Amino acid sequence: QLQLVQSGGGLVQAGDSLRLSCVASGTTYRVKGMGWFRQAPGKEREFLGHIYRLSESTYYADSVKGRFVISRGDTLNTLLLEMNNLKPADSAVYYCAASRYNPGSDPGDYEWWGQGTQVTVSS
Question: 117 and 36 in contact (C-beta within 8 Å)?
């Protein structure tokens, strides 16, 4: 089994930066790609971007391109989301996810999910 454990998040002010982490453990060799999503109250889960675990190739949603950066941490099993110039509209629960296949932009493309972490941006 694969487990994803997230850390980071919290309350920040508009314009601040914040970094989220996601550490995979267990059968990590099965993971080909990882992604980040967020979900605000009453809204569908929104794709933010993904990264191929080995090549580190990334892809971003237009809504966050240029402000958010996805990267691999010091190990193959760590995923980072660096969020810059945060806005109140970025307030949501953020989730990391992992896929055995090519990572996509739909939540259904991912088999494993982190527990979610709240990010709140005050104006």
Answer: no
